[in-house]
Amino acid sequence: MSSESSSPVGCLKVLGLFSVGLIVLFGGFFLVVVMLFRNAPDQSHITTYGEVTIHDAVERGRGYQVSYSYPAEGQVWLGNVQLDRVHWRPGNTISVRFDPDNPADHCANTSCTEATPVGSTR
């Protein structure tokens, strides 16, 4: 009444197949993560934090379209960002980081985009 799956050799085969399956699964997951981060834009130059003024927040879909401005390098820069209502509500703040050599290049919360200069602070 012995079958191959209950013998030590059968158990080793099952364990081997299980191990190979785990390696393939985790290898595929690792490959997907690497591909996602490899294609992410370089943000290492966006290092300076700015003071943000929120001008408007319009409810759109699952979140808010927020317009804001921040002063940098003698000008005021205007930006817009779509924020999910799970992570942001009117009355909350927004953090902005920008490139000190090119203040239009900035990130508001986690969304990176270009800003438009709207006036001088000097």
TrEMBL record:
Keywords: Membrane, Ribonucleoprotein, Ribosomal protein, Transmembrane, Transmembrane helix
GO cellular component terms, semicolon-separated: ribosome
Top-level division of the source organism's lineage: Bacteria
Transmembrane segments: 12-37
Record keyword Ribosomal protein present: yes
The name this protein goes by in its record: Ribosomal protein L35AE/L33A
